[in-house]
Amino acid sequence: QPELGRPRRNCYTLPGFDFSYGLYLPRTDGGVPEAIGRWNTVKPRISVRKMPRDFITMNLGALKEGYTTAREFNLYYKLKDIRQKDDEYSRFKRSPPNVPADFTYGIPTRSSTPIFDLLQHKYKELWMEQQRARTAAKRAEKKKVIILQQVRETRTTFLRKHPPPVKEESFWHLPYLEKV
């Protein structure tokens, strides 16, 4: 409700002076005296986590015992509840890999490019040689493919290779065209 005789306000009132913004954390440290006096450590919680079922192992066991229907499989799951192994007990978490003391992780840095090779355009020449070798290999491959492909024999190609014998011109004429 607006105050009597005044318009309605369009904002909220601020809290009092004793209000503190943010979250209240009851377990904050006690400052310097507590740090000097004792260590305030948090005891680790032991959480018993139920691992998911290992259906691969259970299905294999059920098949070995001769179960085939879904009902038999469910009864087998209730009888032998096999769970997946926890990652905490894996061999990688138990013992870290043995590495030498001076071992450095990561990718080694590339050696610097010699400036003399850059000035002589050596990398350009190497690239040009690779391109020439590649084109020569492609040409040789094309020639090989053309040689391997058999050209189909058509009538035209056959007549070019083996032309028909030329007919000899006969001197025979019609009798009425002959000169008397």
Between the first and last Cα atoms, what is the distance in angstroms?
A: 149 Å
Q: Give the overall shape, derived from the CA principal axes.
A: elongated
Question: In percent, how much strand structure appears in the residues?
Answer: under 5%
Low-confidence residue ranges: none
Largest sheet: none
Quickly count the helices.
7
Q: Which oligomeric form is depicted?
A: single chain
Annotation, overall tally of beta strands: 0
The radius of gyration over CA amounts to 48 Å
Order of helices and strands: HHHHHHH
Helix content: 25-40%
Secondary-structure content class: mainly alpha
**Mean pLDDT across all amino acids:** 81
Topology:
Layout: H1 32-37, H2 55-64, H3 70-79, H4 91-94, H5 115-119, H6 122-148, H7 155-161
What does this structure look like?
With 180 residues, the chain is mainly alpha-helical. Among the domains are: 50-83, no CATH class; 122-163. The protein is built from seven helices and no strands. It has helices spanning 32-37, 55-64, 70-79, 91-94, 115-119, 122-148, 155-161. This is CFA77 protein.
